[in-house]
Amino acid sequence: MRAQKTPAELLVGLDVADDAAVYLVGPDTAIVETLDFFPPIVDDAYASGAIGAANAMSDVYAMGGEVLFALNIAAWPEDAPLTQLERVFQGAIDKIAEAGAVIAGGHTVIDREPKYGLAVTGRVHPERMLLKSRLRAGDALWLTKPIGTGVLTTAHKNGKLDAADLASAIASMVTLNRAAAQAAVDAELHAATDVTGFGLAGHAHEMAEQSAVGVRIRASLVPLLPGARGHADTGISFGGLERNRSHFDDRAKVRFDDVDDALRTLILDPQTSGGLLVGVPSAHAEAWRRACSARGVRPIQIGEVIEGSGVIVVP
Q1: Residues 86 and 148 reside in one and the same domain
Q2: pLDDT digits (tens, 9 = 90+) for 279-298
């Protein structure tokens, strides 16, 4: 395959792995573009649409942007009720409206397995982007949502998750990262990503690698969703988790030092619509706390950026 010519206006593209593409259209405006879709992870169709929308928009927020509009991407079985697809669409419409944006169209195909997501267009000031590559040694590492959605939704599929824990997981997944992104921009931060399929460990490694630094995560500080620890203790296993173990848990990318098996599982657990992982320089720490308080965001400091490479997870 021949390499394509990259225009100077493409600030973030294939050659710079980040959460979304960014294209400069004016001195103070760049377009942020992303897409994401996947099979349903909960039974409720409305919740599935809302989760899919929040998850797809998250990459715009991870870049420090605001969402403008989105396009539906749907696959639907020919023999499945269209009323359920309508509920999926309604969940997404309501979540996109919460973001101050609109769904402007989309495309649906027939498939044996339902899938849903969106292509999302946003905007960002080119000098206020949040990038994976901007961590610096000495930064504090903050997480804006608890983890455990992969373990919990797998337990749900297996019929082993109680209603209260499912409700907590859904509430977390449908919470937009908009306020957290706004707080990061308010505090003039520069480094962030969202925690999704690669899990906390995998996305921390991406940031560490692209920033040429190391990351130390303190496992005991990582916030967990209700019920996540208990289900991780059962030795639960599923495809996304095993892929993360195989790819990241090699003592070069990610090293676990005296961390129990349940926390190890959860730190590798693939997330859906997880929170933002944010680097906060000490000079911006107070501004970050004030901005989070003003925006109603309750992040947790879970570690720090250090000299070196890779991710070290300690108790």
Answers
A1: no
A2: 999 999 999 999 999 999 99
Q: How far is CA 270 from CA 80, 203, 219, 234, 267, in A?
A: 28, 10, 16, 17, 9
Same domain, residue pair 52 and 31: yes
Phi and psi, residue 50, nearest 5°: -65, -40
CA angle 248, 279, 149 (to 5 degrees): 50
Asked whether the beta carbons of 276 and 203 are under 8 A apart, the reply is no
Running DSSP on this structure, what letter comes out for residue 283?
G
Same domain as 183, residue 63: no
Contacts of 301 (CB under 8 A, 6+ apart): 140, 141, 142, 221
Read off the pTM.
0.97
The HSE-up count of residue 92 (CA atoms within 13 Å, CB side) is 32
Place of tokens 């303190």: 218
246 Cβ neighbours under 8 A, 6+ residues apart: none
- Listed in sequence order, the residues at least 6 apart from 63 whose beta carbon sits closer than 8 Å to its beta carbon are 12, 18, 19, 20, 22, 32, 122, 124, 129, 130, 131
Distances (CA, A) of 121 to 7, 13, 71, 102, 293: 19, 15, 9, 10, 28
Could you give the angle at which helices 45-62 and 163-173 cross, rounded to 10 degrees?
40
Residue 188 belongs to domain with CATH number: 3.90.650.10
| CA angle (150, 154, 157) in 5-degree steps | 145
Residue whose token pair is 């509920």: 87
Tens-digit pLDDT profile for residues 176-233: 999 999 999 999 999 999 999 999 999 999 999 999 999 999 999 999 999 999 999 9
Residue 276 and residue 149 in contact, taking contact as beta carbons nearer than 8 Å: no
